[in-house]
Amino acid sequence: MLKELMEHEVGEQVDLFLLVKSAFRGVASNGKPFLTLILQDRSGDIEAKLWDASDSEVKAYQQGTIVRVAGEVHNYRGRMQLKIKKIRRSNPQDNINVGDLLEKAPISKDEISSKVTQYIFEMKNPNIQRITRHLLRKYHEPFLEYPAATKNHHEFVSGLGYHVVSMLDLAKSVAELYPSLDRDLLFAGIILHDLGKVIELSGAVAASYTIEGNLLGHITIIVNEIGKAAEELGIHGEEVVVLQHLVLSHHGKLEWGSPKQPMIKEAEILFLIDNMDAKMNMLDRALKHVKPGEFSEKIFPLDNRSFYKPTFHS
Amino acid sequence: MLKELMEHEVGEQVDLFLLVKSAFRGVASNGKPFLTLILQDRSGDIEAKLWDASDSEVKAYQQGTIVRVAGEVHNYRGRMQLKIKKIRRSNPQDNINVGDLLEKAPISKDEISSKVTQYIFEMKNPNIQRITRHLLRKYHEPFLEYPAATKNHHEFVSGLGYHVVSMLDLAKSVAELYPSLDRDLLFAGIILHDLGKVIELSGAVAASYTIEGNLLGHITIIVNEIGKAAEELGIHGEEVVVLQHLVLSHHGKLEWGSPKQPMIKEAEILFLIDNMDAKMNMLDRALKHVKPGEFSEKIFPLDNRSFYKPTFHS
Amino acid sequence: MLKELMEHEVGEQVDLFLLVKSAFRGVASNGKPFLTLILQDRSGDIEAKLWDASDSEVKAYQQGTIVRVAGEVHNYRGRMQLKIKKIRRSNPQDNINVGDLLEKAPISKDEISSKVTQYIFEMKNPNIQRITRHLLRKYHEPFLEYPAATKNHHEFVSGLGYHVVSMLDLAKSVAELYPSLDRDLLFAGIILHDLGKVIELSGAVAASYTIEGNLLGHITIIVNEIGKAAEELGIHGEEVVVLQHLVLSHHGKLEWGSPKQPMIKEAEILFLIDNMDAKMNMLDRALKHVKPGEFSEKIFPLDNRSFYKPTFHS
Amino acid sequence: MLKELMEHEVGEQVDLFLLVKSAFRGVASNGKPFLTLILQDRSGDIEAKLWDASDSEVKAYQQGTIVRVAGEVHNYRGRMQLKIKKIRRSNPQDNINVGDLLEKAPISKDEISSKVTQYIFEMKNPNIQRITRHLLRKYHEPFLEYPAATKNHHEFVSGLGYHVVSMLDLAKSVAELYPSLDRDLLFAGIILHDLGKVIELSGAVAASYTIEGNLLGHITIIVNEIGKAAEELGIHGEEVVVLQHLVLSHHGKLEWGSPKQPMIKEAEILFLIDNMDAKMNMLDRALKHVKPGEFSEKIFPLDNRSFYKPTFHS
Amino acid sequence: MLKELMEHEVGEQVDLFLLVKSAFRGVASNGKPFLTLILQDRSGDIEAKLWDASDSEVKAYQQGTIVRVAGEVHNYRGRMQLKIKKIRRSNPQDNINVGDLLEKAPISKDEISSKVTQYIFEMKNPNIQRITRHLLRKYHEPFLEYPAATKNHHEFVSGLGYHVVSMLDLAKSVAELYPSLDRDLLFAGIILHDLGKVIELSGAVAASYTIEGNLLGHITIIVNEIGKAAEELGIHGEEVVVLQHLVLSHHGKLEWGSPKQPMIKEAEILFLIDNMDAKMNMLDRALKHVKPGEFSEKIFPLDNRSFYKPTFHS
Amino acid sequence: MLKELMEHEVGEQVDLFLLVKSAFRGVASNGKPFLTLILQDRSGDIEAKLWDASDSEVKAYQQGTIVRVAGEVHNYRGRMQLKIKKIRRSNPQDNINVGDLLEKAPISKDEISSKVTQYIFEMKNPNIQRITRHLLRKYHEPFLEYPAATKNHHEFVSGLGYHVVSMLDLAKSVAELYPSLDRDLLFAGIILHDLGKVIELSGAVAASYTIEGNLLGHITIIVNEIGKAAEELGIHGEEVVVLQHLVLSHHGKLEWGSPKQPMIKEAEILFLIDNMDAKMNMLDRALKHVKPGEFSEKIFPLDNRSFYKPTFHS
Fold it and tell me: How many CA atoms does the CB half-sphere of B121 hold within 13 Å?
């Protein structure tokens, strides 16, 4: 199999199909336009420069285009950069799809779907079970395809579902160690906590914020949806308000966007599990390409810290 | 007319019907129980001590009871305290109702109702008008009776409606000076912004927080209600999300309980008008009994500041 | 009438007299100098590039020069940029003055002057009236010409006077709704609150901070001036200290540059009115060129928020 | 078996052996001294009053004394209080030991010891294993007896060892779900992270801070100990510094007492696991005596929040 | 010589003339009033209780009265308290003055005066010298008598002058080590920095805040005075603004009451020297009665820290 | 003597030996590489551009190389920049050493060494003296050569020793004015407080952080060293813990990297003296090249303030 983009070292030649993640046109000091492209495959992305770009080139290599690129990786101020030598748009004979170049969750949509379904199936409280199943069915497709965020963690295809499955498995272990936890409530809270993202974000790929996402946010969106679901299903028990509270408070603090702090044990634990899974994902991805004895790049959402990879093994 | 409770000075005799706002039982050093009562009429409240209280007295003077009290006001560590000399429960012949002893808004429920109705009547955008009218009708009674808060500002009978009317009048003046403002949107936001309090709080008198109020809060409650109202009325325009945003963001900052900051001009202005009316109410009440040349007590929600009343007049 | 600078869209040709707001010289990779100019008319400003600039061109197009420019607007990384095709300095025959290219308050200096004079005329407290009139006369000319700030809000010719007039009108409405306010004190506080800027800033156009402005700030400057005015006028009443306090505390919080928080009701209201008028000005200007259904650029002094312009109308 | 102290309701008679947790002498208004005692058994503690206490009684009932008390539970301002009717010191015939009246971990010292030993036994990295085993042997006795803190969480006999065992079990589950974690490092960090408390605190019961504890703190103490252990064992690998870093950074943030934030993945996860186990312990204890449909008391270290116990079950 | 108040240990008898620093009337559970007095001599103060106080006693022992008291020191909840056995007002024959019972600076007013005068005498810059001398002469008497604060540090008779002299001596040493410092400017800044306190505070003894002190604060007051002094002396050099800046910025940060941060080297150093002298004073006084091997009480303005006195000597 | 680098004004010709502090390779818009060099001598550093750099030039002018450069200083966006006309590597005949081009402390290593030795010699407490002498001997060489920091203050050769000597002299003056201070403890704390930097940093020149420095930090490193020294010397007195506390707490606050705040008087004073000496160093260096009547550049560690140099002299 071919070496992927991020497996190349400085000085190596690249010849790959890549997706244009973004494209900016500049005017150089000789008056001629040039293109700054961010090119990606599923291993990551790199900045690339196309000098003396013609107007037709500027139009050809826009965001979302698949291109075949030959060039060389060099080091620019400590970051890797790709100097383009040859570039062309892909054509049907190349047999490359956007999906081949996007990062994806390490498990398939089917696996995600069947794991979540199993967790719902095992619930004992019918009110919690019915609301959860109802909303998952309503948003089944985007739930399996959307990322969990536009950046920072799980920002890839099926990231949302993968994040939920990881949290469910972690929650199951936690609930075994601390048996006072209400498993149905905790699992339902996990399944629903970020489901509002399917309305907050514009799509599964290159997601941006919708108007509703900007003005209300995924927390308020899904809390409203839980209310509507309960009404449609004719459910009036305290489970409705408590489930809404779990979702409402899952950012943990007011200044992080939850209008209420957790006031129920399972809400507090949901917040902690969300936090732990997101951090594990960020750390694993940041350290993936770091060699033992070196530091990662600074990770902005982790207080801009660099992390060290020790030289010893256990 | 009789002097009201807070019009008495230190050293004066009191003989009034008063409402027991709260009651605590203590055991004194001689082993006998005593009662600490907070007694109020519509002018305010005072701490009172009933020494050597018998068990029947402890039972008789509980929260919510109307009593006739004779005693003397004295000064205890800088605060006024009432030393009870005689006390008895009121009886039907006294012809005193709880309503006579509660602080009320300075305008009647009818005035509030007709002013708000007029503002709704003049709206031109039918979507905004219909949602606002629908929700006001649904919660008409409690809207006219509830306080705007349990403490700090407008914490009296009809405080909610009175606060809304004051804000509407202020908003009308502001909109005349800054004509780019969307009046319908601003007025609707004002009418709805605190309406969730009729579910968040337990009642019009001696209000505490309901379970739903604690776990969701009045902002989330009314945002959900706007969504349901739009669905019931078959309204799908952008007005729904924008109106929800106005209510959602009216606390101005995440750390003050809004999960989104204002992102629409009228949302920002709604927040500022709410703030100004609440502060005017706090300041007027805090300075009411202060003499020229003296400072008020510290006002906790105003950063614990004391305010000075100048000696000159204009 | 000609289209103004900011009314041009990407791709359109520009041929206008413009003012050089600032000019930077760079050396391009071919070793030749180029100029980055910020060019403005009263509708706003734009970045422009002049490639291969000769030494005489570098000298000709310095800050404060009026130039005639032909070029084309294009989009550079999401911001508009002007590519200069032809440029020359204006000459007397062009009959263009700097004043024609600067943004100005929407009302004239005469209107500002007569409105403020009327507010002073109606004051009833002679001490407040005399101090206010004395200081306004002393700094009459710069008061009518200076901006209210170097950036963020009212940063245009006559911005200071216009800001004061808007605040006075707003204060008048507020005082009608809350009659306990001392109108003379509030109006005098508004007229004087930013008057120190005529010493803090270097002039009416392209203002920078003076040494005194940097080391003392406009608040301390005008508080000192009030003290001197009172002494010259032989006024000794409490009005002097109270008026100084209003000005001193009008930034509202210590960390925003007021050495005392407001401790007088009118001081608190002055702070709130200042805030509301400044925000209205920022919002109206930021949203002026935004189309319905789109977001404004981020507004730094409003917590770096973008504001949305709804698609519906009332 | 007898009802324990905290199982009594208001109005019930108490007749129990209790430990004097603290004792304060007051002088009542009749000039006679009285005693305020905090009395405890393993179920919790209660405030009690002994009126008209003689000098010999004041001396008899000091902190650490076991007493037999008869009295009645009543409600004082919302908290339970014990009115003492009869009290005497315990004597040898009563056959009561301090240990019988102290709260203990729910698992025995032997279980703690064997579980921790097993985790150490399974380590594969010899440097990590040897340092951990060395320090655990050195402080074996106090490790099994000390509390994990003087208040807030695990503040009971064997609390330290119990906290470590809970964290180890949780870490094991986490490491199974996220296999990139270095288990030896994580487990060693958990075993050592709070071991400095055996020097920071004065003892297993009624612990206070030692001089060394106050001036250096348990983090610095154990980091020094790891350094010394490595030197004594002749270990020089990177494991020493990395292990010191895990302990050093386990409070997560500088303002929480760690002079470095976590910069190694296992350090970050150690911090999160510590946090989760501490919060579960606080929540379970706070909610233990709360009835469904009610709120707990405010929990200070959890931002002073009250937690609600739902009425439904799963 | 007699033992002073604070030299008494728990259990000892006291028989001293003391000053009533404050007096509160309480009503005990037997219905009789009692007095809580804070009594002081120059060594410090203590809380005392007078039970069953008659109305004439309540009137007799008010704030500012000198009394002769016999009683016993006992320990109440860890603090020393005085139980009064006998008390009477002092009479002329006792020959005791308030001044005998107040804490004073360790050096006399004459020494303070001559030291400060010497520092002014040695100044070389005539503008700085004349302004400083002018203001010191204007407020000579209160400068020598006032405290430097109402609490926290130098809160005793002549505390202001003593604080200034200590700072001058420290500044002299600093200026010798860092010769780039402008000595005249630094010394003048020190002499004037707190001089506004003679207007901010009500007097030398039992000082409270004046209206002007509350509304403007000592910083603004003295900055105004410097401006007036310069005007009266006909001084127009940059020294005036720079000296005002030093005083204005000497609290170091906006949130500590300086409307500008230091922007001149000597201003920054003045802030640091003020800080160091205040802290030394607080620490020396807090540790004065602490025994080696023990901790002081918590010192509120030092982040509520306790300080340890080591057991060893050098 | 030749003019040094920073003594050149814009427009002047430069012909000097300079050290390459750092070097970045860029690719210009004509496709050719260029070099951005930071060049320094002992007077400071400047950015320089070498256009059309060949591959051999890129290799020749790397960090740490000494070069001879001819060029011209010009102004680029308000900062000075050097346009390189001629450049070559230095050769042995040039007789230039790296040491000639590095900034150094104004006193020699010998002076530093003898001053510190004298302070240790005069200590009276043998435990403190022996630990201090032991550690100074152990790290004698790097102590005399290392900088005190990598940036902000004393970031030059022998900066660490020079900073310590300045602090010792300041501490001596302070101790004379406040005789209650324990001089041995304070002096020892000063000598040791930053000694951990000889392990935290990689070397005396172009220092970066070591792994141990990153993961533990200089505070923890030297606290461990004090513990080891005491053990090796067989010292067990309280001096060990107290000395460790002084070093541990010398950053003053938890959020600045001290895991404990100062709890001993000398610890607090050590923190203040460290702060004062660091700020004096920053201010003197920032103001060195500023002309009277102008402001310095913004100084990041001083809250990003600019400092003004007055026009008058004393």
Answer: 6
